Amino acid sequence: MPLDHTVKAFDADIGQLRGMISQMGGLAEDAIAQAMQALARPDPALAARVRADDKAIDAIEAEVERLAVRIIALRAPMAVDLREVVAALKIAAVVERIGDYAKNIAKRVPMIANANDGSDHRIEPISLLPSMARMASDMVRQALDAFAARDPEAARRVVESDAALDDFYDSIFRTLVTYMVENPRTISQVAHLLFVAKNLERIGDHATNVAEMVYFAATGTQMADRDRGGPDKDIR
Amino acid sequence: MPLDHTVKAFDADIGQLRGMISQMGGLAEDAIAQAMQALARPDPALAARVRADDKAIDAIEAEVERLAVRIIALRAPMAVDLREVVAALKIAAVVERIGDYAKNIAKRVPMIANANDGSDHRIEPISLLPSMARMASDMVRQALDAFAARDPEAARRVVESDAALDDFYDSIFRTLVTYMVENPRTISQVAHLLFVAKNLERIGDHATNVAEMVYFAATGTQMADRDRGGPDKDIR
């Protein structure tokens, strides 16, 4: 088998791997957007669909694992190529978990919606959550775009943006707790919203994790001691 | 090469892989315990040591990756054996990140300690953090013990215990925010403690992630839809 053929076969394999990761990322972004839509309307049927669709993300992760293992076993890639295959395998595991957080949000929709029966009491702070979800979802897309483009600087920007999402979470947490205190009848619903916010915060943390893997795959070194600009930066 | 020899070589490889994961886990537990000790005394020199020691965890992760790739390429393991090698690779990535959280806690020690100068003002809620740290650290050890023992039921128990850690975090968060309001001079120190608590909460989340990987490696199926007993269970 001529070397040229092997190289082409590897390129085709890695292209397929990238395609699957990108597809997983798209599904995870959709899951986040739809879970938030289901929450805002509220639309329990849409929420049920988000939960069912999560199986597709799990299935692609399993495929990524199978293909990555096959590439390692058959093509014996070296250096940057091997780093990329291993990164794909690890990134798929993280994106699968991001999908789980979207599913967890969807699971809370019926509880939040049902408790609204009769009382017609609208929980105002719910309006803060879609912006936080967009921020988290953007981080996921940017981290996976950085992987597709092998762009370590784009990966670094994702890591840096995590501090802003953390601040957003802390602010929403305080707003929701204050709202609970002032509207004790809504406590159980607002508690669900607290978990929604926490799931979004964790999605951002996992996007950061992906970005760090992308940086390492592209450069062979860890992102500057994972300082994220040092702890001073995220206390504002 | 007789089959028997290949099987023995694989067993030796996988034994080495397990040993490295267990060693990483031990270092991560030490890092958590020492970071909390450095915070409680406070002891900035110990904190600096925790930060420096994190490199050892990173180095073992890189070794795990190399060995896992070599096992896949040379031994072409199948089914449960392959699942275990891939799980080791993914678990090492998560434990490496757990080490990062301990390092992040250590980084905050000087800021919290320095602000104490002169005023001799002790932040009482700091006394809640060691218990939370022990809970998080226990989850890490139990998840890695479950991996070593291929014990899916032990893995499930780790996942279930995450809800208690989340509750602990929420309670500490509220306590710290209340303390800030009542002691405005301590705001910057208490803000650092909030991030310490969040890092511990994330360590528990990552231990849960490891436990889910252990469950899958041992059984070939995902843990019951990752329900964790359903969202009702973690709202109490």
From TrEMBL, chains A, B:
Q: What UniProt keywords are attached to this protein's entry? A: Cytoplasm, Phosphate transport, Transport
Q: Where is the PhoU domain?
A: 21-109, 130-214
Q: Where in the cell is it found?
A: Cytoplasm
List all membrane-crossing ranges: none
Q: Name one Pfam family in it.
A: PhoU
Which GO terms are recorded in the biological process aspect for this UniProt protein?
A: intracellular phosphate ion homeostasis; negative regulation of phosphate metabolic process; phosphate ion transport
Q: Name one GO cellular component term.
A: cytoplasm
Q: Which family does it belong to?
A: Belongs to the PhoU family.
* Entry function: Plays a role in the regulation of phosphate uptake.
Q: How does it assemble?
A: Homodimer.
Recorded protein name is: Phosphate-specific transport system accessory protein PhoU
